[in-house]
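S.,

Sequence below, as promised.
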Amino acid sequence: MKSIKVGLLGFGTIGTGVVRVFQRNAELMAKRIGQSVELVKIADLDITSDRGVTLPQGVLTTDVEEVISNPEVDVVVELIGGYEPAKSFILKAIANGKHIVTANKALMAVHGQEIISAANKNGVQVMFEAAVGGGIPIISAIKENLCANRFSTVLGILNGTCNYILTKMTDEGSDFAPVLKEAQELGYAEADPTFDVEGVDTAHKIALLAALCFGTRVDFDQVYTEGVSNIAAIDIQFATQMGYKIKLLAIGKSNGEQIEVRVHPTMIPKSYQLSEVDGVFNAVRLSGDFLGPAMLYGSGAGMDATASAVMGDVMAIGRDMASGAKGRTPIMAYCADQVGELPIKQMSDIVSHYYLRFTTVDRPGVLAQISGILGKYDISIQSMIQPERHEADAVPIVLMTHDAKESNINQALAEIDQLEIVQQPTRLIRVENSLD
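The prediction came back faster than expected:
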């Protein structure tokens, strides 16, 4: 039986998971692709720490060249993370004729075009299922099973840390800071959680998904990104009262002429299936012209789920090698010469419903002043919550608007927040009442 030989860069948590897949399911993988898959080299700076797995003599090395320049290696799996040295290692491996599997969403979102161009030039594959959604096979679904569809939307809950925090805040009525601390203690959040809670990790992923779905290059710097650190318990309480849940939502939309790609806290109706995705789980919802809506749900991170996705990519490459196929599936779902340049809609042009929470003095005429300014900017009120008058110095007024343009909302709030009656900056959360 022929053998596909694999070299691994990075022996951390996910790398250890990949080794576990090799050791437990090597026979199964061989039966499914018709040839054995062999792990021949692992490069890491630390090859002495105990990872709980045993490897044959000579597999571990601190010299990356023993992987990326090894004539025996067919597929290089990159699990280092970050931009450098990962990018340089991948580009050199590609130049040496190696196929690439990576879980590095940041690298692919920011430098993917350079890597893909090099791969196409050298006739090798780059696969990155594990970069988006962990164990959820969303990329292969877009590229393979659902590729006859013209996609209009791709929406996702793509960060388990944020989803865990928002779920706990919703279930327990807690504020952000103590829930984040608990998430860190449980290992769901990093010591420095910035990439997660400020939405950067999610933005990397939706940049890739939008490019795959809509057949266009997506400049990561153009992805509007807003995290969850400013979400307050009171906003979650009002959202619940109004029949919504707050999720950090990744949103990609296309009308064929321009696209929307954005990440921000979003209120979605509790009746929607996506609102029921809680805890550390992830989900992606696609809408295609023939498919209609479909949602994939599962573990978005972790050793085993991510290793599963990595090895699925390795096996896909192995099948192509076994059959002599070359470039059977385009790296970004569209043939390279068919990838377009659709413009990304500016956030100021986005149209949405809006949740607005004003903190005002408790006196007659306050609502009239606020609604007057909203009306001036063509913003109409759909519903309102105003607590009964009491002795507190400041009270919340919560409004839900009909469809409004973001630029109009921003102008109105800039004017409202200057009023003497307003005690704090207005809190804004966008609302998605129609996911298609």
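The domain at 347-431 is CATH 3.30.70.260 (Alpha-Beta Plaits).

Coffee later?
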